[in-house]
Write a structure and sequence with these properties.
Layout lengths: L10 E6 L2 E5 L9 E3 L3 E7 L3 E6 L7 E6 L6 E6 L13 E6 L2 H7 L15 H17 L3 H15 L1 H16 L1 H10 L4 H15 L7 H20 L22 E7 L3 E4 L1 H17 L6 H15 L4 H24 L28 H18 L1
Antiparallel strand pairs: 1-2, 1-4, 3-6, 4-5, 5-8, 6-7, 9-10
Length: about 375
C-alpha cells in the first residue's frame, strides 16, 4: 500500500533488529531505501502522527521506502511472504496512531521508539522529563503550568551548578580592576599580559573557565527539554490561558497590519518579554568590558530565534530566565568570595586592615607580610 501522511511529515522510521533506522525524505533517492532483513516494523511519521506496519517477527519481510518527486511526501511498499499452510493464517499489524509515548509503549513491539527525542545521550533524559510532565498533568491538567513547574524544578535541581557559574562570574568581576591595569601595562606585549593574568588568576584562586564548565553540564538537560517541548503531541492544541491557546505553536497576541521580514504579521508577546529578561540577565552577569556588545546581541538574537518557536518552549525559557535572575541576585547579595587579607600572602590588598597587636599577635611578622603585600600590589600597578 501507499499510505501518505500530513504535510509536516519528517520521514520514515524502521526497526531493523534492535536498531532504529530513520530515513529523512530529503535523503531518499529516486530508487528508494530498501530494508530486507530482520525488519520488525516500519512507519511513515509526521510531527504528531504516524502510520506503521508491524510484521509480527517475520524474518522474510521487506520494506521499500519511497518518496514522491518534487513534494515532501513519503510512503512504504511492503513485501510479506505467506508461510502458513492452507487453512491457517499469517498476521501483521497496521497502526494509525498519534505519537503519544504512553499509547505507543502500551502497543508494544518497541513502537514508542518512533519518537525522536534526541541523540543517544539526550534520549533517556527526554523520556524521563516527558514521563514527569505526564505525571504532573494528572494533578494539574494544564500543560502551561506543568511547563512552569518543570522549569522551576529543573532550575532547583541544577542550582548547585548555576551557583558555581555565577560565583565564578562574581570572582571575575572582583579582579576587573587589576586586570585592567595589567592590560594597560602590557598592551604591547600580549604574551607577557597572558602570563601576568594567569598568575593573577592563580593568586586569587580563580578558574577563568569556571563559568563555562557548569553551563556545559547543564546542556544535556536543556537539549532534552527542547526535544520534549518541541516534538511531543501532548502540547498540541494545549492551551495555557488567554490568547495562548496552543502551546505547540507560536503565540499571537494580535495581527499587525503589515508583516515583518522573517517574523510574519503576528505579534508575539512572550518572545519579547523573554528577550527583555535575557537582556537584564546579561547586563547583570557581563563583567568584561570587551564583551559589552554581547549584552545587546544575545537577547536580540534569541528573541528573533524564539519568535517563531512553539509558545510552550518560549514559556519554559522565559521562566528559566526569571529563575536565573533571582539566583544571580541572591548570590550578589550574599557577596562574592571575600578578598584576601594581608595574611593571605601574595596578591593581597595592601590596604586590608591588620589585626591589632596584642597578646597573641606577632607585630614583626605582620609588618613583614604587609611589606610583601605592598610589593606585590606595586608590581601589578
Amino acid at each position: 500500500g501507499r499510505p501518505e501522511i500530513e504535510k509536516d511529515q519528517v520521514g520514515a522510521v524502521t526497526m531493523v533488529g534492535p536498531d532504529i533506522v530513520r530515513d529523512a525524505t530529503r535523503k531518499i533517492g529516486e530508487e528508494g531505501k530498501l530494508h530486507t532483513s530482520n525488519v520488525e516494523w516500519t512507519a511513515i511519521k509526521g510531527k504528531y502522527f504516524a502510520v506503521a506496519l508491524e510484521f509480527d517477527g517475520d524474518p522474510g519481510a521487506e520494506v521499500l521506502i519511497r518518496k514522491a518527486p518534487a513534494v515532501d511526501r513519503a510512503w512504504f511498499e511492503a513485501k510479506i511472504p505467506i508461510r502458513s499452510p492452507m487453512g491457517s493464517s499469517d498476521s501483521f499489524g497496521l497502526y494509525l496512531v498519534p505519537l503519544d509515548f504512553e499509547i505507543l509503549q502500551a502497543e508494544g513491539h518497541g513502537l514508542e521508539r518512533m519518537l525522536d527525542l534526541g541523540w543517544a545521550i539526550i534520549e533517556p533524559i527526554s523520556r524521563l522529563l516527558l514521563k514527569f510532565m505526564n505525571f504532573l498533568y494528572k494533578f494539574i491538567p494544564n500543560y502551561g503550568w506543568v511547563i512552569i513547574i518543570v522549569s522551576v524544578v529543573s532550575k532547583v535541581i541544577l542550582h548547585p551548578l548555576s551557583r558555581k557559574q555565577f560565583q565564578s562570574m562574581k570572582d571575575m568581576q572582583n579582579v576587573q580592576g587589576p586586570m585592567q591595569k595589567l592590560r594597560e601595562k602590557h598592551k604591547d606585549d600580549p604574551q607577557k599580559l597572558n602570563k601576568e593574568m594567569m598568575e593573577l588568576y592563580k593568586r586569587e584562586g580563580i578558574n577563568p573557565m569556571g563559568g563555562c564548565f557548569p553551563m556545559l553540564l547543564q546542556m544535556p538537560v536543556f537539549f532534552a527539554l527542547f526535544q520534549v517541548l518541541n516534538k511531543t503531541i501532548e502540547l498540541r492544541h494545549a492551551s495555557w490561558f488567554g490568547w495562548i491557546n496552543d502551546l505547540s505553536r507560536p503565540e499571537v497576541l494580535f495581527e499587525m497590519p503589515f508583516p515583518i521580514p522573517f517574523l510574519g504579521s503576528g505579534f508575539s508577546l512572550l518572545p519579547i518579554v523573554m528577550g527583555g529578561l535575557m537582556f537584564w540577565q546579561q547586563k547583570m552577569s557581563t563583567v568584561d568590558p570587551r564583551q559589552k556588545a554581547m549584552v545587546y546581541m544575545m537577547p536580540i538574537l534569541f528573541t528573533f530565534l524564539f519568535y517563531r518557536f512553539p509558545s510552550g518552549l518560549v514559556l519554559y525559557w522565559l521562566v528559566n530566565n526569571v529563575m536565573s535572575i533571582a539566583q544571580q541576585r541572591s548570590i550578589q547579595k550574599a557577596g562574592g568570595k571575600p578578598k584576601k587579607d594581608a595574611d593571605a600572602g601574595p596578591g593581597a590588598d595592601a590596604t586590608t586592615p591588620q589585626p591589632a597587636a596584642g597578646k597573641h599577635s606577632k607585630p614583626g611578622k605582620a609588618k613583614a607580610r604587609g611589606k610583601k603585600s605592598r610589593a606585590t600590589a606595586k608590581e601589578i600597578t
